[in-house]
Amino acid sequence: MLGGYAGKILDVNLESGELKDIPLDEAVLRMYLGGKGLGLKLVYNEFRPDMQPFDPDNLLVFATGPATGGKVPTSGRYHVVCSKSPQTGTVGSGNSGGNWGPYLKFAGYDAVLVRGISKEPVYLSIVDGKAELVKAPEIWGMTVHAVTDELTERTGDPKKTSVACIGPAGENLIPFASIMNDKYRTAGRTGLGAVMGSKKLKAIVVSGNKRVEPANPELLKERVADSMKKIRENPVTSPTGGLHTYGTSILVNIINEHGAYPARNFQEAYFPDADEQSGETLVKKYLTGRYGCWGCPIICGRKSDVPDGPFSVRHTEGPEYETIFAFGSNCGIKELDALVKANHLCDELGLDTISMGDTIACAMELVEKGKIPEEKFHGMNLRFGDAGSMIEAIWRTAYRAGFGADLSLGSKKLAEKYGAPELSITVKGMELPAYDPRAIEGMGLNYATANRGGDHVYGYMVSPEILGLPEKLDPYTKEGKPMWTIILQDLTSAINSSVVCLFTSFALGLPEYAGMLAAITGFDLDADKLLKLGERVTNLERLMNNMYGLDRKEDILPRRLTQEPIPTGPSKGHVSHVPEMIDEYYRLRGWIDGKPTAEKLKELGIV
Length: 607
Description:
By secondary structure, the protein is of the alpha+beta class. Helix content is 39%, strand content 14%.
């Protein structure tokens, strides 16, 4: 077998109970590498345009890449793909760190393909190459932490066991439910947890000792050393850098000072109390330690503890920058202890924090504008700035309790239900993350064109526009942004197919990734070929979305962001100019009205 691969996929039929091994196809790997690319290709092989999110043949694929579990820095990740997302109607996609990806490979598999619906709750156990489905009605209803502890104990070796599971939100088919692994890591977006819940699959437990060797160990050692040097010297990723010292929440003050930190459901882009919820404040008040995913030298994870008070939560982790924004500034809430609590609840219940927080913020604006009758809340005070009601709204959503049934719709359907669809800040039905695109032009173009909806990590234009990496761009100008957006989107598709952490891209570029992957796999890879592979992955995903009926009309931002200028702060007066950039983006992509041309698909070898 090629270097970097275990060599097989586990095909799981939950309806029949059949488990079978499928050998990896080398021709597919050369075109799609692994991770996201492999997952999309497996979905495409059985694609059906009339697919519905909770159909038995909505495939759910967990895929590692050739770098996963190896000697490459930040090689602790895996990618999840489903045929159709219950949240967006697009192909579903998510990425997670922790230990689960490497441990799946150590258990003997590169990927798991799940099909069908079980008649009763089950979990999948993969231990040292042996896979079995275990009936488990007794764990249905457990929270993420409880089921993780239970299944780890059953497996018997906590030091080499990892559990990916859903919480009550996934069981209750909340369309933005997440898949959690190692308790705190999450494939959070597009409702993958709801797809897993619809299949009655509570968890996948992986454990093993198999190691996969690279094609050229000596060359890999040399190229890893070069990449590690760059990571250790970079101001973002170094041992004294921003991510290690303050975690992702170092961005709170940086983005707020630029005037791009969304507040009060994106009505504003500056939050006067931002420092009270910043990474610096988290370190001072609640940080108890740091941790990294498998094989990570950056170590950006936060261990935190709120020992007392109304939002007390002990020995938890996080929160990340996106979570702080979603439950903090976007809900008009400044109390950091409440945000730690909100994050913990979402991890326990299995909810995407961005969509959950943004949906609550949308509800708060609906209340502010008199769109929701008071009697709907049964005593809740769901208004901007009320931390207690925000916390209550989270658990109510996971169980569809009271007004939680409305919140469980997500902000798009919630706003439509109450007659104000313009108050949902979404793209393709998925809530936007923590960067106001009126102040970061390229980020707006990325949001609009991202295949899975409102997605910041699809092409992280914040890196050049705000952080100046790999070079500084003017965030307020349109010039050059279509090309930059395309390059970062295709680079990200390649990284997610490798699979390593996107944070390495602050320090590394295409030559470093291609060099390491060539040494691992033995493929003839260079920077240009790797970027072309990323373009192929992006276009395959877009093609399937087109087959679902999505095109130019979905590649848009909410009206608020293109027509309502930022009212206050450093970016006052700005709006997003995505409508003026989209045609150039399509031209450079080889697309017409959001669809790849036949010539482009042929050029990439997709058809």
